[in-house]
Amino acid sequence: MSFLHGRFRGLQSLYALASVFVIAGLYYAMISLHPAVPLHSGMGWNYVVIYPILLIIGSLIFCLKNSLQESAPLQNGHRIAQPSQFLLAARQTAYMGIALFIGLVLTKDIQISRLFLTGLFPALWVSLILTHSLVYRLAAPKLFQGARSLRTLVIANVTSHDPLLDWLRAHNHLGLQLAGVLSPRLPDEYADLDASRFGAEPEEIISRLGPQVVICSDAHLSREELASIRVAAENAGSRFAIHLDRIAGFGGAASIYTDFGHALAVFRREPLESPLSRLLKRTFDLGVAIPIVVMVLPILMLLVGVIHRMQSPGPLFFRQQRRGVGGQVFLVYKFRTMHCDHHREGEQARAGDPRIFPAGHWMRKFSIDEFPQFLNVLTGEMSVVGPRPHYVDHDTDFAAVDPLYRFRKFLKPGVTGLAQVLGYRGITLTRADVRERSYADLEYLENWSLRLDFIILVKTAWQVIKPPKSAL
């Protein structure tokens, strides 16, 4: 609903503006009172001009990023995964800290008062929490009262503790006031909102009640009835909106894509469908893979070659078919950790597997055998982070166990992944093992970010140093 969207974005802009004044006021109050700030030294201009501007820039970048993000998805009429004002203020403070740190590096200021910074950022965090409360809890209800209030009529098949009505009441700070409900069977708890007393037909009720907003259910009414009610609402000067009951009935998060009058509900977020996101991820992949292939892999090849000559002569690399993005088959490269004559290529390795030569157990435990996969990253067949690629036959078997497993084909497989850093690595024995890996891969698909890739990479590096018990 564009009118609600405008109100919400307006409150975000108001908050950004209020934040600027609060940050600037608090900053100048603190430097004027703090004895450790050298305003009379050569660093004075940094304190008076550069640093407060950097703090404001960091704050505005946070506000812009927060406003450009998709609204939190709806589940049963309620917004889910909505961060608290404490967490939002902490994130905003972190953005300001990053901006100030960049400024300190560029100005080469190593004399800034640590005592001043220790007091500044907690004070900024608390002040932003108060600003959020001031704008959204105190100012918003005042801004949308009187002529700006939205008396709302709901025409739907309402049930007890209806999620749509709960949602409307939760958004009264945007001026939404539930004026009436027209439903075939209205529960007793909503008896005071029974709109049927204004007439027998929706068009008559709209005319007599005079709501600013009419919300209808797409599941309760036919296309012809919706069209008729829309005409009646617009003739009465009311805004018209359709509540997508059929989508809410799925009980999951949905994103609505609209284009030229067509609306599509999509139930999975896929950030990596953006070409820009894929470009950023590819840049990250190359930034990690190139140094490893150039500086680390040759040393490991020499070391592993010596181990092979001593314990299991044969090829340096083990190559096997795996499935990649779109289900395409490619050859993955690994250091060989098994003897060459076992003829059991598709069998998963187990603890104490006789096929693995002695040093091979050590290589697998510390993930040394995985490093040649950075060659696959360079060729674009794999990514540094993503779902781990499985043997082709296993891929088919796992997909039969858990349908969610198939979603991994929308991503490039990775040298490491979210499932691995969460502890789901090693042999896959049970249906639960497959499901846990599938849920982790799906979570990565829907929540990808460069920050998440970096966190997974750091945790993987730690697991190389201190392998988990599941590592073979």
Keywords:
alpha/beta; 51% helix
Task: Pick out the low-confidence regions.
Answer: 70-81
Total number of domains: 3
Shape descriptor reads: flat
Order of neighbouring strands in the sheet with most strands? 4-3-5-6
Q: Count every helix, treating DSSP H or I runs of 4 or more residues as helices.
A: 15
Which percent band covers the strand fraction? 5-15%
Order of helices and strands: HHEEHHEHEHEHEHEEHEEHHEHEHHH
Distance between the termini: 54 Å
| Largest β-sheet summary | 4 strands, parallel
Helix content: 40-55%
| Protein structure class | alpha/beta
Average predicted local confidence, pLDDT: 83
Q: Rounded to an integer, what's the Rg over CA atoms?
A: 30 Å
Annotation, overall tally of beta strands:
12
Topology of this protein?
Blueprint: H1 2-33, H2 44-68, E1 74-75, E2 78-79, H3 85-107, H4 114-143, E3 150-155, H5 163-170, E4 176-182, H6 202-209, E5 213-217, H7 223-235, E6 239-243, H8 245-248, E7 255-259, E8 262-266, H9 275-311, E9 317-323, E10 329-335, H10 358-365, H11 373-379, E11 383-385, H12 392-401, E12 414-416, H13 418-421, H14 431-447, H15 450-465
Parallel strand pairs: 3-4, 3-5, 5-6, 11-12
Antiparallel strand pairs: 1-2, 7-8, 9-10
Helix pairs in contact: 1-2, 1-4, 2-3, 3-4, 6-7, 9-11
